[in-house]
Amino acid sequence: MTSATAGGVGPTPPAATRRKSVTGTRRAVAVLFLLPCLVLLGALVVYPIGYSLVRSFLNQSGDGFAGFDNYKALFTDDGIRAALKNNVIWVVFAPTTATALGLVFAVLTERVRWGTAFKLVVFMPMAISMLAAGIIFRLVYDQDPDKGVANAVWVGVHDTFAESSAFPKAHPGRQSPLRPEKGGFVTGQAVRAGQSVALPLVGVAPDQMPGSAKKAVQAAVEPGKVTGTAWQDFTRGKGIGRLGQADPSELGYAGMKVEAVKGGKVVASTKVRDNGTFTLPAQADGALLRLPAGNFKEPYNGLDWLGPSLVTPAIIGSYIWMWAGFAMVLIAAGLAGLPRELLEAARVDGANEWQVFRRVTVPLLAPVLAVVAVTLMINVLKVFDLVFIIAPGSSQDDANVLALELYRKGFSEDQPGIASAIAVFLLLLVIPVMLFNIRRLRREVRR
Question: What's the whole-number average pLDDT of the chain?
Answer without folding.
Answer: 86
